[in-house]
Amino acid sequence: MQTKMKPYRIQNSELQSLIAQQNTTSHALLPDDLGYYQFTNTQLDADLSYIETSYQPTKDTAIISQIDHAEPKIVVTLALQGSSRFAAKNGDEVIFKQGYSTITRFNTTVGERQYQADQPTHQLRLILNKNWLRRYIEEQQLEDLFKHNNLKTLSCQPMACQSHIAVQQLLKNNEQGAMRTMFMHTQAMNILTAELMHLFQPYKTENLHEIYLANAARDILLCMFKSPPTVAELAQKVGTNSSKLKKLFHQYFNTTPYGLLLDIRMEKAYQLLASTHCQVASAAYYVGYTHAGNFSTAFYNYFGITPKEVSRERGIIKFDN
Q1: CA torsion, points 69, 71, 76, 79, in degrees to nearest 10?
Q2: pLDDT per residue over 211-267, tens digit each?
Q3: In whole angstroms, what separates CA 205 from the centre of its chain?
Q4: Low-confidence residues of the chain, pLDDT below 70?
Q5: Which of 103, 162, 283, 286 is the most buried (most CB within 10 A)?
Q6: E strand or H helix at 130, and its extent?
């Protein structure tokens, strides 16, 4: 029987000492050729931070950290590529899975950020505090949210369609100086609106079944985007009718079933073209298009850029240097 190797462990403070700073982008070569770590950290305002990380270790790695904030924080993590895990010393854990938005609350936390060997991860985090939420959320809702300081996963679900679009805008951001921060702040607000809304909407008990139906239909499209069911078939799979399903998509996702399918296909095609040497025709086939020409037209209409341009840039894990 083959014995599983213990992960390489590095203190977060040791990692920070290896970091070379270039403007808002930082990067570190890990000891003994164990991989590469890169991140950006931008303070969008006094109560809101943007962090983007790219990491690919050459062996299983655990980054040991102790987080001790003066006040609880809310962290919205969008896992754009790969998966990782945070294991707290007290036994709590948080899984960050590709394509999912994970919302956590924490104050003081001791644990490990765990990564698998040769598995690239690309994650975007928005970190905000109670003062930021107080601008938009009623005080009683905030008290309920922050009445405990321990690590807690508040939500883990597929990224909202609006978030997919905002992320692509952030990755293509070529603005400089104050305009860059303003642009990032706008896209961050789009993400936070899409991802936090369900935490504060006062759902009635009778609406819970509708939410379940809408999420179930969305999950089916996420799995069957290449050969999707018709709207009628999708409605039948989740136990409703076409008219009702369309209303649910409009109510909870602000789009149609076809609109969500297009979001999924375009996002997956963009990731494929930008992170691999995939040809346009292959990307088109992968996301369910029979004709590359139709795919290229849809892609340009969606992003305002051609698939070939994305393929040349290879920009899915791209940082300003």
Answers
A1: 20
A2: 778 888 988 898 899 999 999 999 999 899 999 999 999 887 888 999 999 989 998
A3: 29
A4: 1-5, 13-33, 68-70, 149, 201-208, 313-321
A5: 283
A6: helix 130-134
The CB density around residue 161, as the number of other CB atoms within 10 Å, is 20
Look at residues 266, 268, 270 and name the one whose alpha carbon lies nearest to residue 302. 266
**Distance of alpha carbon 104 from alpha carbon 99, whole angstroms:** 16
**177-200 and 161-171 helices cross at what angle (nearest 10)?**
170
Burial (Cβ within 10 Å: 0-12, 13-18, ≥19) of residue 306: middle
| Domain spans in the chain, listed from the N-terminal domain onward | 8-200, 205-254, 268-321
Superfamily of domain covering 268-321: Homeodomain-like (1.10.10.60)
Cβ neighbours of residue 218 closer than 8 Å, sequence gap 6 or more = 158, 253, 260
Task: Pick the closest to residue 267 from 185, 159, 122 (CA basis).
Answer: 159
Neighbouring C-alpha atoms within 13 Å toward the C-beta of 284? 18
φ/ψ of residue 8, rounded to 5: -70, 130
